[in-house]
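Q: How would the structure tokens look for this protein?
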Amino acid sequence: MRKQGGEYPLSRLKGLNDMDSVQMMSNAPSRYQDAHLEVDFHDRIATLDSRRLALTRKEWELLMLLARNAGAIVPRESLLMLVWGYGRGIRTRTLYVHIRRLRKHLSPYGAQYIENIFGIGYRFQPIGPADCFPTPTALPVSALALTA
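A: Here is the predicted structure in token form.
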């Protein structure tokens, strides 16, 4: 994941110096809500069109991390480290499988909510107006902007 000197091999990313850059801050909202999805981070409840989602622990952690960083690209390596605790050099398809399952839970909106950024990671995209939407300036993940 990191090269010597603290740089990531994904040269298209800037501002990401370590895994701590993708995290939940203490002032992050306790709830996410848009036109179809409501996620209560404190009570660990997610509802889609008023239907409660039955998520596994890893699916919940993945949804929480993506929704708290909505609108920002979260690198694959960061997701593997923060959700599964995998270190550098681990090659696995578990993230792909869990993203697929999470999209199925979020059906029919799953593909709209979770966008694959080829070669980098994933971005959670709100559908319609979102309340308690973490602004890019509120979360350190905003440093994950793509360079031109």
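The first helix runs from residue 57 to 68.

DSSP finds four helices and seven strands in the chain.

Upvote if useful.
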